[in-house]
Amino acid sequence: MNLTDKQIDALQEIIIIGVGQAAGVLNEMLSSHITLQIPFIKTFSPDLVKQELGLKLGKGKLSAVELEFFGSINGNAELVFPSDSAAELVSILTDEDMEFSESDLDELKVGALTEIGNIVISGVMGAISNLLSQNLEYFLPSYIEGNIESLIKNKNLEKESTLVLAQTRFFIEETNIQGDIILIFHLGSFHKILEVLERLEED
Amino acid sequence: MTVNSDDDPITQLRFTLLDYLPVGICVLNPEMKVVFWNRCIENWTNIPRNHILNQNIADFFPHLIKPKYYNRIQQTLKGGPATVFSSQLHKHLIPSPLPDGKLRIQHTIVTSIPHSEDNQYDGIIVIQDVTETTNLMKQHKEIRDLALKEISYRKKIEERLSLTSEKLQNHNLELTQLYKMSQLLQNCENYETAYPLILNSAKLLFHNLVGGFFFTDNKGNIIKIIKWGNLDLDKQDILWRNYFLYWRENQRLIRENNFSQLPYFYYCLKAKKKELGVMYLVNTNANYVNESQQIFAINFAEQIALILANISMRQNLYEMTITDPLTGLYNRRYLDEILEAEVNFAFKNNQKLSIIMLDIDYFKKFNDTFGHKVGDFILTTISNILRKNTRKSDFVCRYGGEELTIVLPNTSLLEAKKIAEKMRIAIKELTLIYDNQPLPPITASFGVANFPENGLTSRQIIVVADNALYKAKKQGRDCVIIADEGLHN
Fold this sequence. Notes:
The complex is a heterodimer of chains A (203) and B (489). Chain A is built from six helices and eight strands; from the N terminus they run H-E-E-H-E-E-H-H-E-E-H-E-E-H.
């Protein structure tokens, strides 16, 4: 299933609003300006999604916070950092020197990163569910560390299904921090989104 | 569902279960009013349930009205995802003191609970006390950081130690090689056998440098050049020529100056006030020949100079023991030594060997008439004639008094006789003038013998030659007599 340009434009707009809101929260926390890239949106099969993300995020170690949502729309939202970006971000937020803990974010830091992920993802999801007027339910946010394989777990992705991937990269100015906001909607859910999008257009 | 009074039994019953949980729990309605306040949080905050129920939580904890708390809690109260206030970023969402006065470290999660009858949500605030865990982790981290620091400190020390030990090891190697070289050089009898030893050691000890020696004689003429280095031969040749020219033109400078921080280094070989040559080292990577290399090179050169001087002294001493001081000919002692060796050689190689013995006629008379000085003059002059009429391979010796002996290896009796005749005539034709005074003509008598015809040992041959000489004297002097004794007789 492919998206039309119009559909992509509409979805991009919604995601820009959501991500923009999240960037605002981050901005407030760090008092640094956040630069956002225009979201990339495309449909994929589950296997290809991994391949695509591998290309986009690289093979290095990643730190991510994941939020699974369900209801009328199913999917995952993730905030992904390269591990060194994650370490730098946490050390800015907690004012702690990371000299000896660069390689593995110790447990003390995991909580902080989870909270940041929670803030950003809640911002995105709040905006999206408001715009689409959908009531969603959520699991608790969880922290994941590893490569792409461990980030995207197959068990939640139906083998046959098509996924819609939306990815936005952001940079925090005056630091070396970059990160990605990734949204994966399951196909069934996506029909719902398109339906709503069409209705919005008509209004 | 809204709760209006603190004793609404249904609401309280609905949440009673939460009283038994070991976490602080507070339930808020969409207006942020407290709907439930469990026992645990009652204990922690010392705020009794009946005081806070139905009150806006911000009345008790005014900081919660700040946007960074308010907005996030509101989001959840509107059905958004759970809100996490981590123990790292927000340790004290609902501040509660511990017995020691410090505030409890809290990990807080706000989750929404949908109402069944309308589209609204309550929020349940769950607070975990993570003080102990956090402190333990902090301690653990401190210990780990300390251990890592210690490890990195030890690593540095170890690296430094291994560097020093490597240096020492190198130094030790250098000294051992130097010692070995001196040991070998001590046994060298002449310079020619010493040069290859010096070259090998230099190659080992200065393997990362290019270098060489110019060895010179007493007059400063080069007698030997040795060189080494990781350059191909052509380049090495050009290099040493340049350095040699430089050295020639700047000899005095080089002797007087200590060049530091240059890519090349010179050192004069000097021992017992004698100059024996110069050593040069070049760093072809255009780096300096560093100080430790220079110091070691100096040690190396000094050692070589000393040993070369010793070799030369030993050689002089040896020559003195085998030379007759007046005539410069070999002495009898050396004759015995050399004859024995040459006879053995001839025997092994199936060669002939001849000896000529001669005696100056009426030498005693000359001595008595004109004095010892004239006698010495005659001996020296005749010695020179003998030397002129022999080959390089022959040995001319003073056997004693006025008796002289010549050893002629690989020479037949006939050839020896011819040589003796030549000598006899050369002596006879001498015109001797001493102190402006002409001396009477002088002659000599000759006896010639041969190995193996006249004897098989050096002693036998000498005796036979002496007998022939005796015959020559008897037959009227100034003649050459060939021995006729021997195996065939």
